[in-house]
């Protein structure tokens, strides 16, 4: 049966089957609004960045990519009005996300506000997530098509647990899929899965992001066997994990029958204040959104990846994540 759920994008809704080849974990602009105002970054020029982003997405479109999910959420400088200017200048379909990016503690305005806290009342995270999904982000008509949450080496701290609980509520009320940033070295995806399972989130609606940072096949199989998708979503990010390892582990999982549980991407950005262009040019020159199309997929094809496999990894599986079945 064809999927009928319509996915919100920066330029209107599309049917799930119209998404095409999809990069499911990327960023357009990662910024730091307070720093950007008080200590502007010398490599950031807004109009030039918008033009560069539109040109990059046009080049990706010519390489066969049709949809990019922008997982830049609050905490990473999300500005949908700025990205909407990019979306208006490219044929690429862009999808926005809601969520919150904090690895241990929330900022004071959130940390002290909510049920049983200093400023008692409803959880503003729930209000934020549901508003982004249902009404639009920051007063725009752009609605979120994915929920992004994070836990890192510190695990699921009390504040991070609040973010996960808010994400679970938003998922249960809207069906919007959840993706994570996980710490593969500490097998952090397992803690994330337990948290979501306890909160009533079906694990097949969750992508455990950055799973491809791990070579531990036992860990990755455990995640996939529980139902989640594995994000092999950092190709080109050599300063974290070499691509040859990612490829070897990916092929081992495909051989073991996990084709239906894997999605591919880069976690790259057109501009990131965290890792600015001059730094990337020296330390991660291949960390770009074109690496799957121009370098990784040709290597995988030589190693036996079929066109049907490629269709599953880059078209069918992202469609299943974003649209549900």
Automatic annotation (TrEMBL):
<dbReference type="Pfam" id="PF02126">
    <property type="entry name" value="PTE"/>
</dbReference>
<comment type="similarity">
    <text>Belongs to the metallo-dependent hydrolases superfamily. Phosphotriesterase family.</text>
</comment>
<dbReference type="InterPro" id="IPR017947">
    <property type="entry name" value="AryldialkylPase_Zn-BS"/>
</dbReference>
<protein>
    <submittedName>
        <fullName>Phosphotriesterase-related protein</fullName>
    </submittedName>
</protein>
<keyword id="KW-0378">Hydrolase</keyword>
<dbReference type="InterPro" id="IPR032466">
    <property type="entry name" value="Metal_Hydrolase"/>
</dbReference>
<dbReference type="InterPro" id="IPR001559">
    <property type="entry name" value="Phosphotriesterase"/>
</dbReference>
<keyword id="KW-0479">Metal-binding</keyword>
<feature type="modified residue" description="N6-carboxylysine">
    <location>
        <position position="148"/>
    </location>
</feature>
